[in-house]
Each structure stands twice: as C-alpha cells, then as structure tokens.
Amino acid sequence: MGILPWILLVALGLTAGTAAGLLGIGGGMLVVPGLFYIFNLMEFPHDLVMHVAIATSMSVMVCTATSSILAHHSKGDVQWGVFWKILPGILFGVLLGSILDNTLSTDWLKIIFGLFLFVISLKLLLDFKPQPQSKTLPGLAIINAVGLGIGFKSGLLGVGGGAISVPFLIYCGLPMYEVVGTSSSFSLPISILGTLAFLLSPHRASFLPGFTGYIYWPALLLIAPFTILGAFWGTTLSHIISGEKLRTAFALFLLLISLNMLLF
Description:
Blueprint: H1 4-23, H2 28-41, H3 49-74, H4 80-103, H5 106-125, H6 140-157, H7 162-171, H8 176-199, E1 211-212, E2 215-216, H9 217-237, H10 243-263
Antiparallel strand pairs: 1-2
C-alpha cells in the first residue's frame, strides 16, 4: 500500500476545497465518498468504513467552517438573528443524525449517501433555483423544524447543511450574500457537535491505532489544511473560469459517484 493512500488524502483535500471555493458547494460531498474509497484501499474493517469517513469528514468541517465563518462575519454577511433562532433545531438534529449513524451498517449508510449525491447531482444538472417568496422569516416553530432537518442530514452524512439551508434562506427573501454567509455559519455548530458525538462514540474503532471514537486523526490532519488551501485556490479561480460549465461537469461527476455507491 505504501505512500499512495497519503497522496490520495492530500489530493482529496485539495479537490474538495477547490470545488467548494469554485462552485460554492460543500466539500463533504467529495470528502465522504473519497474517504470511503481510500479507507477501503487501506483495508479498514468493512463495518467501520462509512462511519469513519462520515466522522472524519465532520471533523474536517470544523476547520473549514471556522475559516469560512470568520471571512463572512468580517464582511457583515452573517444574519446572526437567524443563526440564534435556528440553532436549537440544528443542534438537536445533529444529535439525532449522529445517533442514527451509529445504529446503521456501512452498507445502509453507503446507500443513503449515494441517494443524497444522486439528488444533489440532478439538482445541479437541472439548475434548480428557488425563488424568494417572503420578505420575513416564518415562525420560530418552522425555523426550528428546518434547523432539525439541516442538523439531522449533517449528523447522519457528515456534510454541511447548504442543500437545505440555502433554498430556505432564499425563500425567506435574504439577499444572496447573506444567504451564503448565514448558511455557512450553520456549519460551525454542526461540525463541533457532530465531531464531539463521533469522538465520544464507544465503538471498537477507538481501540485501533490513530483513532479516537470514529475519527481517524492522520486523515484529518492531512486533509484539513489542504482543504483550506484548495478553497483559497477555488475562490481565486471562480473569478477566472466560467462556473456554469464546471457546475455541469461537477454534477456529472457526482452522478457517477452516486451510481457507483448505489450499484457496487
């Protein structure tokens, strides 16, 4: 096996970060399946592979979410009033999602993640864009119900909440720069609580070298800095390269990954 898995982990961090910066898409959509294939190459126990990939992706998100929230806050792009209202629902959802993650097998998690990627790829291919319907936020009960969905999906799959939070915030009539900044702010509590839940997992992965709970530290320490570097590159490239063709190519790539996870 040699050095190949470590090279692939670095490449995964760069690719996921670049895609996030270039297309505004959460890197977890690439990090989780990428780790799944790399951990299989490293011959991790089959019943641990998806759990470790999801947990390690969540821990990587702590680093990327911290840098993202600082950047958006400095520009005044975060609606903190919305953040505090939706936070209880998000935190409760993350706990529920991480608990369910612990009860499901690797095979079931692979199928669920494959379906998630399939839906996201179709959304990108069809260029689905929700339209603003309101200039005010809905009631607190609806906000927290949405937060519950955001947190649950993230806790279960180890990805950010943008697939739900961005359409919701657009629907509520926030300007796009506040949609992006506020949605990004949700990723920090999601990733912190999700990481703690996976760190404290009593699963036997804790007794393997390099593990705490479900989190594999060597992968985290390799991927996180290169994800941040890739995000910087992607943001720079977004002002040079046409995003539309890249979005279609990325959607097709996600579609291939999803079909591979579902069929093989």
